[in-house]
Amino acid sequence: MIAIIDYDAGNIKSVEKALQFLGEEAVITRDRDVLLAADKVILPGVGAFGDAMNRLNEYGLVDIIKETVSKNTPFLGICLGLQLLFESSEEAPGTKGLGLLKGRIVKFPMEMGLKVPQIGWNKLSYPNKGRLFEGIDEGEFVYFVHSYYLKAEDERDVVATCEYGVKVHATVEHGNLFACQFHPEKSSDVGMKILTNFINL
Fold this sequence. Notes:
The chain is an alpha/beta fold. Helix content is 26%, strand content 30%. The relative contact order is 0.17.
């Protein structure tokens, strides 16, 4: 069973539907016992970093997430869920992230004339191809929606990148902790393969 963390963030239902489409049992929950008993856990999300951290704290989910990760349960952050795993974000100065991975979330540079947020398909490169991309060729396209992007401190954790004016750390993997800035659940067959690879870990 895969548990999807419920903290009133957008996009949770579409992740649930994608997992159900793949024949996987999924439950949306913030119950500690359910989360700790799950085979795998997903932290999805669309929205603002500061608001999301406030809700995670309000619902007592911060310690549960850290306990889940410490148990080596395969854990996947998606979009805002990736950003929350890191230490801080320029979107919410002074707000601490979960700090499970070293790095920070920064805003796309406006002086480059980029359309922000990045909305749409972008292709992936693999500096250190990870387990989520088994059977997926470099150069495949996935779907992004974001105004801020990750600069991971340890580039050995970065398994996929894309270019959008700057190099975006699009996917990280550290032990059994995984995260994607893009939306696999909205990324057609490639995204379904990524989720299948996570299910099969």
